[in-house]
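U., I forgot to send this yesterday:
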Amino acid sequence: MLFNPCFIVPAYNHSRAAGGTLAKLAAYGLPVVLIDDGSDAENAGLLRELAAANPLVRLLVLPANVGKGGAVMAGLRSAFEAGFTHGMQVDADGQHDLTVLAEFLAAGRGEPEAMVCGYPVYDESIPMGRKLGRHLTHFWVWVETWSFSIKDSMCGFRLYPLGETCALLDECALPMRMNFDIEILVRLYWHRLPMIWRPVRVTYPADGRSHFKPFLDNVLISWMHTRLVCAMPWNLSRRWLGRAGGHPNPHWSKVKERGSRWGLAFTAWVHRYLGRWLALPLVPLIVTYFFLTGRTARQATRGYLERLFRFTNGQSPRPNIWNTYRVFLAFGFSAHDKLTAWLDPRLITRLDFPGIDLMREARESGRGALIIGGHLGNLEMMRAVAARYGFKGFHAVVHFAHAAKFTGVIKDAAPDSAQDLIHVSNFGPETAMRLREIIDRGECVVIVGDRTSVSENGQTVTADFLGESAQFPRGPFILAAALECPVYLFFCMRHEGGYKVMAEKFADRVLLPRARRTEELAALARRYAQCLEQLCIAHPLQWFNFFDFWNPRHAPAPNEARK
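Result:
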């Protein structure tokens, strides 16, 4: 995930204190979104002067005072729209020790999917009433989250992941005043956003100006806790069942593998020792559980079906809940066949492969080959193909961390299954050298072309897919050029009780001349996307991506906001 942070500084008649805060922030060299929350004429003028004097500061002027929460939300949305990935909220009044910002930013860079929250370390300047009120709020937050993991819910010194946070802002109406800091933290917890806690010293200046209104804000906070307690059972059940979690459109490599290793192992045991036909009835039960609890996958699949339905002018399955479930069910049976392919590929009895001569050409040429597949159908059927036709030397590149449980169970059941798997967490020079050695031996490397880079480094190319622009990885085509070998497309589709293998030669060799590198990559991505598109039309319920493929958040973000 990219890490492109900025500072979010709300200010309401705090222009003099804001000057000192901005001077300290300048040492970090990051852009600042300064929000004028309807300040009076004198303070508004001073804020304009501060912004004009600092090229890193962009002033966002709200026409009227909306409250601290409203100002912070406006700043978060503005930063997200400008292309930033993280927003560090810093109050303008100078209460927080800004020397710890480097530690907060380092924590965010190390775990960009998490929110870094400050918990206050007070000196004797804190008013006793504030101290007692905080303890009361802590109690209710613990009740609302059924957890002691939130160390402090009122400290507004936080580094927000903007994608996840702005998605929440669009999902529900959050309070505009001082109760904002509390409610957004509880709701992000309900959404299973990881949280990292760091101490920050807080001082209440003797001449400080507070906008906390004891009667009004305490009433609003009490009403907020009442609402959150009433909403707690439903939201906690969603959190525990995995239905609320993180970014609604997460990068595929950031979504943790679901299910227990014990359940997978039991299914594999039944499959191996009692027979694949006795394991088959378990599939709908397992699929139904994952369908009901997998909101992200369910929404992404529904989105895919909607695009396909529009693209085919209504000639594909309707994008309703039943057809969404059918995609899950098809994936479940595909996983069942994966077990078969790994444990004993000879059990795959119906295997139609009209392009067998292409595979023979690839294996017998002695030049090696790069085979690009996808999450359409069942790529693991290549093992059945290899067993049926006596092929050897197919090495699949996999992201192990995303399927560690499934791969581990398969390895336990069939110890030799991992011999041809190349596990990668990130694609670097060592992996490229290993793949080149395989190609030089005349063997084949198998990768997928419909997943963006694990590192989320923006290495994508845009291509039209089902009528909309989508991001495809550049890596497979760059790898093809580096390996200097023939390239084939390979898909295995479930068909009439068995599998039909689709194979075609993509290129005898991929060339990426420096002068036309961008254009050539775009052309290659378009060709791959068109092939994937046609297969999706022919087999609409067999694209098992389960992520929002059209989500543009992986495009490179700008280094700084424009003033």
